[in-house]
Amino acid sequence: MTTTTTTAKDVKKHSRVYFTVFGVLALLTVLTVAVASLELAVGIGIGVALTIAVLKVSLVASFFMHLISEKKLIFIILIFAVLFIMALIFLPLSDALTNVGTKNVP
Amino acid sequence: MSDDTGHEESFWRKYIFSIDHKIIGIQYGITGLAFLLIGFSLIALMRWQLAYPEEPLPWIVFAAIPALIGIAVILMGGKKRPYLSMSGLIFIGLGALIWYFVSGEERMPGAIMLPEFYNQLGAMHGTIMVFLGVVPLAVGGFGNYVLPLQIGAPDMAFPRINMASYWSYVSGGVIMLVSFFVPGGAANSGWTSYPPLADIATTGQTLWLFGMVFLITSSLLGAVNFITTVIQLRAKGLTWMRLPFFVWSQFISAFLLLLAFPPLEVAGIFQLMDRLAGTSFFLPSGLVVSGQIIAVSGGGSPLLWQHLFWFLAHPEVYVLVLPAMGIVAEVIANNTRKPLWGYRSMVYSAIFLGIMSFIVWAHHMFLTGMGTTIAAFFQTTTMIISIPSVVILTALFISLWGGSIRFNTPMLFALGFLPMFGIGGLTGLPLGLAPSDVHLHDTYYVIGHFHYVVAPGTIFALFAGIYYWFPKITGKRMNEKLGKIHFYGSFIFMNGVFMPMFIQGLAGVSRRLWDGGAEFLHAQPFLYLNEVMSVSAWLLGLAQIPFIINLVRSIRSGEKVSSNPWGATTLEWAAAPSPPIAHGNFKTLPEVHQAAYEYSVPVEGDGTSDFIPQNQPDKEHVDK
Amino acid sequence: MEIPFTVEARPDTGLENPKLGMWLFLASEVMLFGALFSSYILLRTGASSWPIQSQEVNVVVGTVNTMILITSSVTMVMAWASLKMDNFKNFRIYLMSTIFLALVFLIVKIFWEYIPKFHHGHYPSTNTFYALYYTMTGLHGLHILGGILINAYFLIPGSKMWKKDRKRFTNRIELAGLYWHFVDLVWIFLFPTLYLL
Amino acid sequence: MITLLRYFGLPPNYSVQGAEIDQMIVWVHWLMLILFVGWGTFFIYTLFRYRRSKNPKADYIGVKRHYTKYAEIGVVCFEALLLIGFAFPAWANRVREVPPEEGAVVVRVVAEQFVWNIHYPGADGMFGEADINRIDPQTNPLGLDRSNAGVDDIVTINQLHLPVNRPIVIHLTSKDVIHSFSLPVMRVKQDAIPGMSIPVLFEATETGEWEIACAQLCGLGHYRMRGFLTIETGLAFEDWLAEQAAELEEEGGEWWE
Ligand code: HEA
Ligand code: HEA
Ligand code: CUA
Ligand SMILES: [Cu+2]
């Protein structure tokens, strides 16, 4: 949302959205703690927790940070940042997981 | 924030804490050159030890030369130019630094270099050259000075952040230099600072890490500024495909700095924690150093550092070379008097290069026990990333064809860049293929590879830039004869230093050896090359004297020139006076109507001028 | 000569300089925290043993702190919205609440988490989990501190600009908000990573 | 090309795997040479042909045809060939996922500042347990448990003896910092990383005496971290092992008291 195009009326409408988002965020927080206490299998646990976290983050970014109506340029920059981080996580990780030749020694 | 109301700024505001991009650019440039000089001096000392292991250094000579140059600079600067004279102090300070090195028993007893000290010099040579010398000069110096002018902007987007970036850089540099004076000396684990070695190293390593934090901050601030400036402050009509290639190269480098440095910051914080808070991010369990069990919790991973470090350091090497390519492209287009051939393909290649450079980092780690799939991945990306470099270099070569080539000093350096970068790039290929890297990894072949890209490559491009933009900065031209001596001297001796490294590398001589391999039998047949390289390196240093004289003399009494002496199309020459006006650059902001390099446009042919400046409105008869 | 587009958006990009600058900074922050998470994952998968995190940390305190940060994000965005609606008084109230909540977050963090852990002899050097825990939450805490300082600046000395240049001040608060939401966003990832998994 | 590279310092190769590596080196250097000579000639000719005094008026267009595109495609193909034809298979051979240990000589090499500890399993073919708490720099640098499988283990410092024409598996690790185990004539190099045990596979084709070099900066003694590699016939190797075993017997008493 570029500030140039928003009027006070829009903002008033948005305020209601902000509080709704807040409600959802709070709910999701409770949910993620609740799920964690269920002690699910490790894989599922991680999956659920991360899904909820991603959901919450997208809410914050989309609404509080107005990313949803932000310029495409900013999107592109952020997407590259996220892609590079994925590379930094998964490339070394996949080597650590697939490489059976080298062993960790205590 | 900027004021052209004409009221006199204080000395401090004007020259020290200036927020004018031109002053900041000059500050960056001079500081960068000074660090280049220091970096060179460190290696000059090391090369003595490599050529004549364990012989006392004739330190009087080594200290006297910079001191004498310093005195000469002071005298040449004269009373009228106190700032010029003061730069002589840099050289005298350097002489004093060398004297300090020799005077310490823990560094050079009897003027003989200890291995510990050799390692300090090596690590600091790499660090200073990369982070304090070349990048600040190429990005901070040229980027700051030239980029806003080339895009027709009154200044950087955030002048204050620009100043903060410079002073953060200076702080980092000072910390790095101070580290020579703490007990145990400076960092001594290589510029790569691999743990566990770096985790257990002396205090200098901690200072290195603090210094890096400042340098990282500086680069991040700079990068935000550059990107915003290019996106937001381009002159009217300056579309993306009309940008000079130099602007593109800076733009992409800024992205690399922005996104690649934070992981190194994380790595640096981890290493600081390891060193100061006793954590073991990079320390596996069960370390025994000199028979003593290291009392830490363990469980860390030394490879984590390498991943984080090279995630930065590989993009960083393209930060070293992209601006250089940008400078070379400007100079070549200008001095062949024709447009760059394949401008678009160059731009796309540079963008592609930037993106790819984030996923090749582990080609520095082939020998860390990497499995087949990942090795295949990184070999492939490494081969892929060599293609855009080939495309850019090819385009530059082809651009020469059909030109009307002027061999002035900037052009000579730019032309010198091409084959030198070519050699450096080509020797990157065997390193990028894991099987051949097995033999060549961590040998002098690697040293040869990257010095060809950074020293006769990037440094030549930087020299080209200095000679090319000097008239812009001062309104005076540098002396051509001295310039040519400087070029030919540098060209010969650069090759004299770095060519033999390939031979030693093929022979399997490891890098970072205090005695240059004298310990090892397989190195014996090639030890004589150490002397060849060292002598070349010293002569290379002496070959810079004409440059220093030229610089000082031209500032003092160079030949005055018009505002566009090279007959260039780009805005910094075509639309701004030389030197450009303080705070604002242009009398009125220019408007752009042309592509970046409209030289020798065929229809124009009235014989008076062979170029169309970017800000010249279209005449009817130019509508090809 | 004034630098263009510091307050008005550039027509073809639709952005003001400071906003673009802030987003670029945030992109680099994504890389910073991304690298932290990456390290966490690599160290944890490579470790031969790992404590059960929820037994080491205080999940209740963590949950409370999460709620606090989320609330502070809402107050922050409302502070900006109040300016948009020309309601300076509400702006002050909301911004003050944001700062207050941030302070509570830090106090809870220090007195209900760090100090009890020190008492139990859990230091960064204890094991890799604690090393990561202290480093990651510590860096995040520094970001919170930074946010407090920025917001405090805009609450008192910086707010003079409101009288002179409303638009510019509103933009600045928007940027402060972007930063603050980002800090919140990082915590949203940190919380499950360090407390739940 | 190989002769040329030899001339420029490349040592002879005495291992089976090294041949592959040399082949790789040769092929890339062909590519490099072609590009270098090709573009070099073009470059010098162009500078000469289009100097200002000869060609006062530049040509706006320059090169019109797409030779360069073909040249670039050529480079791409060549590199693809190098990757798929040579690099991938050669690398796969070098880091066989689970090293085949039957019929091979298996040795452990443990690097430390600034020596190479060589650990043979002894007659029983089993390595004894190593524990850092048992380490004694003088008598037991590896912290070897001499009571069980370790009773007949042979430990030398800097002396690596290996038989010719037999597959060799070295399990490489380090006690302190990162080192790099380098045998230039065998085209073997591998980082020795604390906390990791990395297998190194090769097979020597020639007997002789060479050196083990350290390629990774590991501290002030990095330059003198030198070991000795002796490749000998199978018989000589057995003799040497027996000799070492006898010595061990003699010293025995002190070792595990
Ligand atoms: C500016 C810096 C720079 C640049 C541009 C490059 C470019 C490349 N580098 Fe280099 N590299 C470094 C700086 C650089 N490097 C540094 C500093 C190190 C060592 C760090 C350390 O360990 O301390 C290193 C190390 C290094 C390694 C690790 C080696 C090892 O430690 O074992 C590898 C491996 O893949 C590699 C590969 C490459 C490749 C494939 C390119 C490619 O991008 C090159 C592509 C270019 C070409 C292919 C040239 C094309 C040329 C022509 C088409 C024309 C030729 C014509 C004539 C000559 C007339 N480099
Ligand atoms: C940008 C990077 C860069 C540059 C430009 C250079 C430049 C040079 N380097 Fe360096 N080097 C590295 C980066 C660089 N190096 C790195 C990263 C390492 C690895 C470190 C490690 O092992 O960790 C290394 C290692 C290294 C070694 C190996 C050491 C070892 O392994 O033990 C050697 C050996 O000869 C060497 C030599 C040289 C020489 C002779 C130059 C010359 O080309 C220098 C040329 C410069 C000049 C001649 C100075 C010009 C100065 C002026 C013109 C001043 C004017 C000033 C004013 C007017 C104020 N370098
Ligand atoms: Cu061990 Cu270098
Ligand atoms: Cu690289």
Summarize the structure.
The model of chain C has no long low-confidence stretch (mean pLDDT about 90).
Strand content of chain A: under 5%
Secondary-structure element pattern of chain B, one letter each: HHHHHHHHEEHHHHHHEHHHEH
How many helices of chain A does DSSP assign?
A: 3
Strand arrangement, major sheet of chain B: 1-2
Strand segment count of chain A = 1
Give an overview in words.
The complex is a heterotetramer of chains A (106), B (624), C (197) and D (257). Chain A is an all-alpha fold and 106 residues long. Chain A has three helices and one strand. Chain A is flat, with a radius of gyration of 20 Å. The model of chain A has no long low-confidence stretch (mean pLDDT 83). In chain C, helix 1 (17-46) runs parallel beside helix 7 and helix 4 runs antiparallel to helix 5 (128-155). With 257 residues, chain D is of the alpha+beta class. Chain D has four helices and ten strands. Chain D has helices at 2-7, 16-49, 67-94, 234-255, and strands at 105-112, 115-120, 154-157, 159-163, 167-174, 179-183, 188-192, 196-203, 208-214, 227-232. Chains in contact: A-B, A-C, A-D, B-C, B-D. At the B-D interface, helix 5, strand 1, helix 9, helix 11 and helix 12 of B face helix 2, helix 3, strand 7 and strand 9 of D. The complex binds heme-A (HEA) (2 copies), dinuclear copper ion (CUA) and copper (II) ion (CU).
Task: Itemize the secondary structure elements and their pairings.
The complex is a heterotetramer of chains A (106), B (624), C (197) and D (257).
Chain A: H1 8-37, H2 42-64, H3 72-98, E1 103-104
Helix pairs in contact in A: 1-2
Chain C: H1 17-46, H2 53-56, H3 59-84, H4 88-119, H5 128-155, H6 161-164, H7 166-196
Helix pairs in contact in C: 1-5, 1-7, 3-4, 3-7, 4-5, 5-7
Chain D: H1 2-7, H2 16-49, H3 67-94, E1 105-112, E2 115-120, E3 154-157, E4 159-163, E5 167-174, E6 179-183, E7 188-192, E8 196-203, E9 208-214, E10 227-232, H4 234-255
Parallel strand pairs in D: 1-5, 4-10
Antiparallel strand pairs in D: 1-2, 2-3, 5-8, 6-7, 6-9, 9-10
Helix pairs in contact in D: 2-3
One heme-A (HEA) sits between chains B (192, 317, 320-321, 363-364, 382, 385-386, 389-390, 393-394, 419, 422-423, 425-426, 428-429, 431-432, 437, 441-442, 446, 449-450, 453-454, 458) and D (35-36, 39-40, 43).
Attribute tags:
heterotetramer; A: 106 residues; mainly alpha; 3 helices; 75% helix; D: 257 residues; alpha+beta; 5-stranded mixed beta sheet; 4 helices; 24% strand; elongated; binds heme-A; binds dinuclear copper ion; binds copper (II) ion
